[in-house]
User: Fold this.
Amino acid sequence: MKSGFVALVGRPNAGKSTLLNALMKQKVAIVSDKPQTTRSEIRGILNLEDAQIVFTDTPGIHKPEHLLGSRMNKEASNVMQGVDLIYLVSDGSVPFSRGDEFVLRMVKQSGIPAFLIFNKIDRMKKEDVLRYLELWQKKHDFAEFFPVSALKQESYEDLIRTTLEYLPEGEPFYPRETLTDAGIRFRIGEIIREKILMCTEEEVPHASAVYVETLKTKKESAEVGALILVEKQGQKGIMIGKQGAMLKKIGTMARPEIEALLGKRVYLSLYVRVEKEWRDRDKLITEYGYGNIDE
Assistant:
């Protein structure tokens, strides 16, 4: 039996979380069109008949503007040190840049075999795909190259089959029914944060954090109380909206997914609080679960 760990790394918005969900054939990580959606490593555990692959989605590697960004970069780097294989996920629809060079340097320093997962080819002409693949081939001796379109939910049988060739023999790391090792409160908070990313613009979504304060489950229902943190009073006003309209919209969008996750009716309460400069406060970053996905 084969079992091992695969890290998905790359720049923000490369499509790592979308790829993880496609590989798992169900939603494990939240996705949005905004950079730095993923703030903590998310594991998706793919159980096959004779193998277990633990995919680890990592925060997008970027030039940090806050302590949170530095923590996210460090986490991505740390994940790379403890895996059997790396998927370097690159957005093929944007030009190669210094950001790509930085990520590639981290991959090289890890010494771990790496696949180049050339994503978003649905946005490219065929000749451009070939040209960019040649450019990347000159940059590093990748073990394999896979042009894909994660958004199109295509088949990944070849990618998975080739991945297994690079993984060691061994027993499963998790029980076979396990989908992810993320705590339930973290997953609920991420669902809510995804809706914030979808509903708000500019700095508001990036300055937001979600902390699930209460989770009381009964036989057929659950009560969830979640605190939304922002950094400025003006952001709080936007998050609440006129007569609470924005907060109600976020809750209405999040509730069905939380109910599907818990398998029961959910009574969801959302609150907003200003916590100045929380993204530069190490204790708060940890408290809100970024860098630590345990329940």
Q: What stands out?
A: The longest strand covers residues 221-230. The chain has a mean pLDDT of 91.
